[in-house]
Amino acid sequence: MSDKKLQVRIDDRVRLMSAVLAATSLPEMAQEQKKHRPHAHARNTTKHVASYNHHPAVANAQALLNKNAPLEALYTYVLKLSWPDLDDIHTPAWVPENWNTQLREFYEVTGLAEWWREEFEAWQKAAQDAHKLLQKVNFYEFLHPFLGETVEALIFMPNISYPSERSVGVRIGGELISITPPRIAWGDNPPWPFDEDAGHLYAEALTIYARLLMLSYLRQHAKEVAPVAHKPLPVSQQFKDRHPTWGDQFTELFAVGAVALFLEQAVSKQEAQAFVLLQEKMQGLKVLPGVVSVIRRYLSEYADGSYDAFIRYLPNFPGHLRVAKTIAKL
What we know:
The protein is mainly alpha-helical. 59% of the residues lie in helices and 6% in strands. It is built from 17 helices and four strands. The protein has helices spanning 12-22, 26-33, 40-48, 56-66, 71-79, 99-109, 112-118, 120-134, 139-147, 198-220, 222-228, 237-242, 246-266, 269-283, 288-303, 310-313, 317-329, and strands spanning 7-8, 153-158, 168-172, 175-180. A four-stranded mixed β-sheet has the order 1-2-4-3, sandwiched between helices. A hairpin with a 2-residue loop joins strand 3 and strand 4. The protein is globular and about 60 Å long. The two termini are 41 Å apart.
């Protein structure tokens, strides 16, 4: 098994996109959804770029947000640009014309290079705190029974800018990247430092890696998955509306169940239970304890040699989940 290590990295292209987003309506929209106090750097960045909220780079970012463009697309785009020139080799059709040039101009006129130098310690602390916890665990090893050898590099990018309340996951070449803010606190309290909240850090990063890898796994095994996808998963209509395809539904269930098991092993049973309860509330899913039970069952049967790969077990997943859901109601 690979002895690869997860990497913690700060990328100026990510910081640039976050600074652009700071000048859009994104921070205000996040507050409308859930009142919270972003990291001090995020709040100060909003002030730093406030007078440039009509800059073309910001106007185009706002236009994309107004069209409900996913943040994943914005960050994927900027991470494909060269640095520091921000050259665009291949522009997707949805990208505004000359946006890369506008982004480079925004970076220059706002003095972001100097601003980040002033904020060096805040970014370094975030990276060091994240590294302190992430070096204690091995996501590659945990995911191996489900997905085999993970050939992609797992990258964690702490984000003390925007978005301040949610992670963004992207695949760039051979890298899977989790762009993750610290957990927001109640009311007007500052967010938790990364090294004081292992549960949040592990859950956010592993959820992204598990989703991206499982989606690829299902595509690679499309022939075997096709007949299984005709077996409906016992999930609510609300969940189906949010995840319309069988593959999306399964991937989300798998990610949540796998993360819960990981938290149980790496942090505590209480942390795992709290994670499941939160996901139940957020996603309207009552089947999650059953998902955890089924994934635990697979790991047990994988360990005793009943299965040599998750794809062999997959045909049993819908039926076993229905049984587990029924038992949970008793």
